[in-house]
Amino acid sequence: MYELLVPVDLDERRALSQAQWVASLPNAEESVAATILFVFESDTLEEIPEAVKQQTPSKQFVDSVRTAFRYLDDRGIDVDVVDRRFEPAETIWREAHGRGVQTIVLGGRKQSPVGEHAFGSVTQQLMLKSDIPVVVTGSPDSR
């Protein structure tokens, strides 16, 4: 099984773009397993009821997670959701290594003409730090 980590943020279109890339892999429904990762920031955590924090709150409260999950699940791809807290780049890196994934699939952002060759800070940190391949799916606006 080819294991992928799909860290999503709050942007539904970016999460869908990431899910579409995963689903486009050859024989994805038979040979791919994806873990959608959502990293809660401290201010987001305060809005979640204490009882729900023990579960997978992003599946219930975060539209981008639900969108990516449904897209992959509807296509028969083995998909799981995990929530973590704080420090997105470090958390993504630790989660990828802890799970032994083969690829990290990030969503890109549309850049201004001046910044079109630069990546977001989390993407840039992961590309520099990770020994695991990092795929950046690109901005949904650029399609």
UniProtKB/TrEMBL annotation:
Record InterPro entries: Rossmann-like_a/b/a_fold, Universal_stress_UspA, UspA
Annotated ranges, domain UspA: 4-137
One Pfam family recorded for the sequence: Usp
Family annotation (CDD domains): USP-like (cd00293)
Top-level taxon of origin: Archaea
Name of the protein: Universal stress protein
